[in-house]
Design brief:
homodimer; 429 residues; Rossmann fold; Single alpha-helices involved in coiled-coils or other helix-helix interfaces; 6-stranded parallel beta sheet; 5-stranded parallel beta sheet; 14 strands; 46% helix; globular; Histidinol dehydrogenase (chains A, B); NAD (chains A, B); Histidinol_DH_monofunct (chains A, B); EC 1.1.1.23 (chains A, B); histidine biosynthesis (chains A, B)
């Protein structure tokens, strides 16, 4: 952990920078993958599964038998945990639905907006070291609440052609329309352009490696919406002496274990506290199965000592962390000062893991400073908000002159005429 | 107008296609402009204003004197129209604010989300044939309601170095922090990266030509958020025999006058009606000042005859129009069938112009079929929704086991430990 006492304002801009990654050299290869998938569809997906996932699949779509077997293979404890998390995520996201208000902005001029589900969405769940069924919940539950008609899941198969049973069980709970054994850029291409087995979708969600990241950027340029720009996961903890160094160390490690490029930042007003956290980090790290990832991430981590909570909040706002933990005595007083953050965890008993899995908030959040302008995934991410208006003849008499004057001032006479021609009719009657 | 009677389902996919534009060849030149602005800041902006706008500016920022003069130069009628539109837009967008609900997803586990303004936003208003002060209202009013701290406006100067007085008057009403005389890709670069006069912003809004479009794509790849992907404006009208052919023609023309690439589509269940609209189009077109634009756009327009309203709605959903006008007798019955559209205008007295200027709804809307996944600009576009959670020791006892089980199943032991270490402490007391 890089330790700095009272960094100067000049240093701040440097300290909040994330490591930049240039992925442009991947684009050509990924565009070639896109071409394969667009031209040959399922055949290309099967070929690429052999090449990249090392498995000769018999078919791309997961069968009902596989799902039934997956369900039978999970422990009751895990199934209950998944159901509990599902329930909490559902409760929290259901409250995000916007009620419809009809608003009469002027007499006879009524406007409203209505949330309508995006019809077809695609979810990508990576394979690799951790089977992220929690991410599937975080994306699938709001998709279900929104009412998305088609829910496609792509996830890479293991070498034996299977998908992790917890992912299949969760997919089945969510009523995912199709589970496709496809990973990487080819999965993104399949969902963007469609193949024989994979319907083309309008928006693609989910995390992934750098190939998936670039593939999502490329399809988004081509008009398919995506959830969020990607970046390594991160946590910033603000702790005062009321915090528990062991808890803080555990939180930092839970971020660090994601991968060597995870961003971990601790702000505190006590150098003694910082030292105690460092001692705890060392002790807890030693027994972690993913020690290798975590210790690499800690190597790039920051421990900063400031004079005041206010300064720490300023720094945090400039950093705009994905996860912000406030382990300070008077966290209520800090709430109004939080301007840029993805999700905020308050007090000593609200670990980031709670939001990662089960408290109800979403864990798909803006990284890399994007929290300055982006929100995390929510029910909003799965709907369009369509506006409507109805104007009566009297309403048009009320508002018509305003429109005519403005349209004329912008030099758009046909816009003006669409009102004038109607007013003439209304006034004639 | 290209006329087709009962197009087959096979034809639909072709008919809903928008003309594709490949702007990639512009990227190199725009990246060079970015480099100039990043390296030389204001000096580059002044130089590029000379090169592209044909004016040697004395300074980039609009002065208070210019604003005062602008206000004095406008007619009372126009100022009142702008104020009326401002008021209606404000009323409608104020209702989009989300109330904060604290939700206890389990006993002791409380979650909520809060809308927080994006601190710094940039608005781009193009120059050219129409001074779009209406767009400035559509972007500035929700920015103000959200509480954005810094509101920067870039707009290209005319050859005499001035900005249209209606734009300056509107900017002043909105309390825009800075009005910068800069246009094109250089304006987007200035707002994304900052110069001596232009603060770097977190999100950039507004329409523009192809250089602006590509520049916005490029900065969005670099992490600056943008409002919407761009495309030519479009209207789709569904009309039955209860509609007025003159009104429908006027609506089609108000779209067509935007530019030669505007998309204009009419669906009707009566060929006779279609012919009457075409006759009206010819008559009204002849007297339009922007006849040239409009007649080019009409050249590419579609007039389709279907058997039923249901089929027309299906086609419209596949097309996903930016603006949808329902000039049909029983429009209420159609409302639930509308799945993909930006903004919808109901009945014979709700012209698109109303929403373009003054009814209260936003006119910055998804074009090019993006309405399948994107919403128009709203108050949401100017805030981040940050989630918060507070868990009590008892709450952690309730939810802890669920988190531990899920984290272990994902192989993330440090995530599990962040809970276990706290539970040990809670259970010890």
């Amino acid at each position: 952990m890089r330790k700095i006492i009272n960094p100067s304002q000049e240093q701040w801009a440097e300290l909040v920078k994330r490591p930049a990654k240039n992925l442009e050299e991947l684009e050509a290869g990924i565009l070639e993958t896109f071409k394969q998938v667009r031209e040959r569809g399922d055949a290309a997906l099967l070929e690429l599964a052999k090449k990249y996932d090392g498995v000769q699949l018999e078919q791309l779509l997961v069968t009902q038998e596989e799902i039934t077997a997956a369900e039978a293979s999970l422990t009751v404890e895990l199934k209950e945990a998944i159901l509990q998390a599902y329930s909490n995520i559902q409760v929290f996201h259901t409250h995000q639905a916007e009620p419809m208000h009809q608003i009469e902005t002027m007499p006879g001029v009524t406007c409203w907006r209505k949330s309508v589900a995006i019809e077809k969405v695609g979810l990508y769940i990576p394979g690799g070291t951790a089977p992220l069924f929690s991410t599937l919940l975080m994306l699938g539950v709001p998709a279900r609440i929104a009412g998305c008609r088609e829910l496609v899941l792509c996830t890479p198969p293991s070498k034996d052609g299977t998908v992790h049973p917890a992912i299949l069980y969760t997919a089945s709970l969510l009523g995912v329309t199709r589970v496709v054994k496809a990973g990487g850029a080819q999965a993104i291409a399949a969902m963007a352009y469609g193949t024989q087995s994979v319907p083309a979708v309008y928006k693609i969600f989910g995390p992934g490696n750098q190939y998936v990241t670039v593939a999502k950027q490329l399809v988004s340029k081509a008009g398919v919406a995506i959830d969020l720009p990607a970046g390594p996961s991160e946590v910033l903890v603000i702790a005062d002496e009321s915090a528990n160094p062991a808890f803080v160390a555990a939180d930092l490690l839970s971020q660090a274990e994601h991968g060597p490029d995870s961003q971990v930042v601790l702000l505190t007003n006590s150098e003694v506290f910082l030292d105690r956290v460092e001692a705890e980090l060392e002790a807890q790290l030693a027994v972690l199965p993913r020690e290798d990832f975590a210790s690499k991430a800690l190597g790039n981590s920051l421990g900063l000592v400031f004079d005041s909570i206010a300064e720490m909040l300023d720094f945090s706002n400039l950093y705009a962390p994905e996860h912000l933990i406030l382990s300070i005595l008077n966290f209520e007083e800090a709430l109004d000062s939080i301007v840029n953050a993805g999700s905020v965890f308050l007090g000593n008993y609200s670990p980031e893991s709670a939001g990662d899995y089960a408290s109800g908030t979403n864990h798909t959040l803006p990284t890399n400073g994007y929290a300055r302008a982006y929100s995390g995934v929510s029910l909003d991410s799965f709907v369009k908000k369509i506006t409507f208006q109805h104007i009566t003849p009297e309403g048009l008499q009320n508002i018509g002159g305003t429109i005519e004057t403005m349209a004329a001032a912008e030099g758009l006479e046909a816009h003006k005429n669409a009102v004038s021609i109607r007013l003439k009719e209304v006034n004639r009657v």
